[in-house]
């Protein structure tokens, strides 16, 4: 009798051990357990720690509540300004409703990955190249909003979306490099011209001061000589004022030298008498030289001739 009782206790103990081994579950701290009994969702979600389920009746699904880092594969697209680019990104998300992540979507990780890729291609087509390169914060916010709208129904919230890299064709890179070089050259020329303008104004002010005070010009010349001599070279530059050269030129001409147009006329050789011109007279035309000859004396008429003429 005792042996049969011990055998029954052993059998019951073995069955209990097998039952506990089959029903025992451990949920980690960063996980939550969703229990489906005969395919129907149990109301309560199992928290972290030790928990029991009914073997062959309940099925426990563990859902990680950690932030998931998922890379988005590089997507080829054409921007709004017709530039072909290749953009990849990374998305950070986490599950906030374990039951919805199990019930409402078959595989929430795959679903989030697909919606992230389609949203990335859509954001590329709506943006310009300059926005992709310099205004990524705004694009990240728009991409996060596009992914988060459908993901909320799956019990998933998007924590952050970042565009990692934008790949451009080599021809576009060279064009952008030339554009940047031309822009820098333009700014350098503008700065140089502005500096020349400021320097000319300062030089004009300095010239006005030196014209009022001639000794300032002499001091400036001495400073220039000192600066040249400080280089330890064998060449000495001695500038001469223009006023000194003009003074020497006037001294070389002498005090009695004629000035002006009268002096030029005096230095010209005296003109001689005009040369005789060859005169050819046409007998059929009046001779212009007749006006220059003395008139011929009138013929004298005698009285007897006059009387005779009157008689006739």
Automatic annotation (TrEMBL):
Region feature (Disordered):
255-312
Q: Which InterPro entries match?
A: Band-7_stomatin-like (IPR043202), Band_7 (IPR001107), Band_7/SPFH_dom_sf (IPR036013), Stomatin_HflK_fam (IPR001972)
Low complexity bias spans: 255-277
Which Pfam families does the protein's record reference?
Band_7 (PF01145)
Band domain residues are 22-180
Family statement drawn from the similarity comment of this UniProt entry: Belongs to the band 7/mec-2 family.
This one is known as Slipin family protein
């Amino acid at each position: 009798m005792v042996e049969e009782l011990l055998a029954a206790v052993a059998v019951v103990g073995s069955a209990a051990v097998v039952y506990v081994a089959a029903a025992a579950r451990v949920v980690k701290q960063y996980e939550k357990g969703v229990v489906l009994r005969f395919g129907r969702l149990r109301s309560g979600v199992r928290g972290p720690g030790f928990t029991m389920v009914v073997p062959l009746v309940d099925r426990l699904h563990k859902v990680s509540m950690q932030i998931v880092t998922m890379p988005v594969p590089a997507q080829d697209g054409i921007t709004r300004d017709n530039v072909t680019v290749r953009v990849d990104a990374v998305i950070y998300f986490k599950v906030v409703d374990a039951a919805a992540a199990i019930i409402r979507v078959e595989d929430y990780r795959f679903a989030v990955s697909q919606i992230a890729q389609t949203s990335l291609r859509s954001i590329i087509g709506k943006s310009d190249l300059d926005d992709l390169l310099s205004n990524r914060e705004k694009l990240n916010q728009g991409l996060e909003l596009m992914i988060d709208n459908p993901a909320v129904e799956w019990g998933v919230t998007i924590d952050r979306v970042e565009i990692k890299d934008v790949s451009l064709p080599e021809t576009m890179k060279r064009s952008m490099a030339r554009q940047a070089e031309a822009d820098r050259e333009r700014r350098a020329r503008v700065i140089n011209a502005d500096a020349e303008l400021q320097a000319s104004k300062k030089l004009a002010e300095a010239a006005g001061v030196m014209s009022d005070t001639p000794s300032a010009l002499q001091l400036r010349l001495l400073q220039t000589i000192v600066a040249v001599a400080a280089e330890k070279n064998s060449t000495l530059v001695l500038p001469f004022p223009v006023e000194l050269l003009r003074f020497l030129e006037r001294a070389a001409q002498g005090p009695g030298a004629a000035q002006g147009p009268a002096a030029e006329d005096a230095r010209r050789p005296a003109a001689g008498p005009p040369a005789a011109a060859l005169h050819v007279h046409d007998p059929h035309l009046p001779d212009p030289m007749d006006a220059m000859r003395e008139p011929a004396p009138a013929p004298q008429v005698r009285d007897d001739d006059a009387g005779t003429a009157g008689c006739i």
